[in-house]
Amino acid sequence: MKGIILAGGSGTRLFPITIAVSKQLLPVYDKPMIYYPLSVLMLAGIREILFITTPHDQEAFKKLLGNGSHVGCKFEFAVQEQPNGLAEAFIIGEEFIGKEKVALVLGDNIFYGNGFGSLLRSKVDVNGAAIFAYPVKDPERYGVVEFDSEYKAISIEEKPEKPKSKFAVPGLYFYDNSVVEYAKNVKPSDRGELEISTINQMYLDEGNLEVGVMTRGMAWFDTGTVESLDDATEFIRVIQNRQSAMIGCIEEVAYIHKFIGFDKIEDAIFKYGKSNYGEYLRSLI
């Protein structure tokens, strides 16, 4: 399975913070926001990853992330000229995806939970599609999944005025290779975007959509607003300081999963110097 991180958009809900910098490069406590979704794909065992950015932000992402060799991965970059919707990621990434399955994670989504890595790795060989549902207070801001009495998904709507449930669909999706053709058949919504919910509904109509409800032990943050960005920062700070374990440390994930060896950790320690991040890597060895 290959992976795509969609890190485009203009971040207008965070203005003026994001006028000069991509929101996915903003700090969430002690590391750039993009490290968190990147660590999610790496936890799933995915090593070939495409970053889709705006044209003017791409050089900054390349400077931060490089080609991925420092974490045993292969990074590629592509441009989304306009924020035309999440489904466009599969059209932009068609050549990158090739004949493989693909996972998509949004660059401003943060996940945390016990057993989360095992959950991710159970989806990488998906036949059809696998998405998740998470209970929220404001489902009208998201794609919303409706369940029947046996918790079987029966519909998916994008940002409905009157949500049929409290279950939002987080920005993490696993698909087989059919997703590329499905994406090409998506028509723009009333918002003028190619909606990911339309693709999910296509899989649902074919009986090939798996929807897993995230348990209470899982945490999900969509850091698209100032309030949610602040909440995520505080959450990461508290968890890390209480547990003395770092969330979203890509070198640690790479080392644990044997993407890299001891020498790359030493290189990273030198790179990050006396920062908290560098000191944490030093503590691992």
Automatic annotation (TrEMBL):
It comes from the Bacteria. InterPro entries: G1P_thy_trans_s, NTP_transferase_dom, Nucleotide-diphossugar_trans. One of its GO terms (molecular function) is metal ion binding. Signal peptide: none annotated. Keywords: Magnesium, Metal-binding, Nucleotidyltransferase, Transferase. Its cofactor is Mg(2+). It catalyses: dTTP + alpha-D-glucose 1-phosphate + H(+) = dTDP-alpha-D-glucose + diphosphate. SUPFAM superfamilies: Nucleotide-diphospho-sugar transferases. Pfam families: NTP_transferase. Its EC number is 2.7.7.24. Residues 2-236 form the Nucleotidyl transferase domain. Belongs to the glucose-1-phosphate thymidylyltransferase family. PANTHER family: GLUCOSE-1-PHOSPHATE THYMIDYLYLTRANSFERASE, GLUCOSE-1-PHOSPHATE THYMIDYLYLTRANSFERASE 1. Catalyzes the formation of dTDP-glucose, from dTTP and glucose 1-phosphate, as well as its pyrophosphorolysis. This is Glucose-1-phosphate thymidylyltransferase. The lineage of its organism: Bacteria, Pseudomonadati, Bacteroidota, Flavobacteriia, Flavobacteriales.
